């Protein structure tokens, strides 16, 4: 299989962590790509018409994309059980969606600063994105710590990668402030070999 990935993408990192945790590392070749919505560069637009990464080209069955789809596929392939059976599945999927929402808000903030010309940047919109992410972080601190402290699952990986991206691109926002339980959890989760092996890199 071939994974189209960039060293800086948090959604690609989530898939890479899955590959490590499911023991599939020797079955996946990583192909590094770069680009933005304005300049697709080497993004796999012929593999994923949206031009987004990650995208996974399977040995049989073509290309699948969106990190959640790829992660479900890898879990199915490995039988690891990182997506539990229902009814626990709904909690895992909801927390994973929360993590991805944090990432989407963070990426919108990053793109506003890196791609949009300075005279066209809209600070209130950026702050609205952060408010969205902050509400989600507060909810995780308040409602989801029992889940995070349970057996490893897809939601934990997604949250770990989301928090890692906030440190990577938005460290000045100091997401740890006022969230001591989540901060303590992240400090331990970040020590996992899969997280250490997939740290984001500036490109």
| Low-confidence sequence ranges | none
Number of individual domains: 2
Coarse shape: globular
Q: What spatial order of strands do you see in the largest sheet?
A: 2-1-3-4
Number of helices: 8
Question: How do the SSEs run, as a string of H and E?
Answer: EHEEEHHHHHHH
Compute the CA-based radius of gyration: 17 Å
CATH topology of the largest domain: Glutathione S-transferase Yfyf (Class Pi), Chain A, domain 2
Strand content: 5-15%
Task: State the secondary-structure class.
Answer: alpha+beta
Largest sheet: 4 strands, mixed
Question: Span from first to last CA?
Answer: 24 Å
Features:
single chain; 203 residues; alpha+beta; Glutaredoxin; Glutathione S-transferase Yfyf (Class Pi), Chain A, domain 2; 8 helices; 4 strands; 52% helix; 7% strand; globular
Provide a brief overview of the structure.
The chain has helices at residues 10-21, 67-78, 88-114, 123-143, 145-148, 154-169, 180-189, 193-196, and strands spanning 2-5, 29-32, 55-57, 63-65. The chain is of the alpha+beta class and 203 residues long.
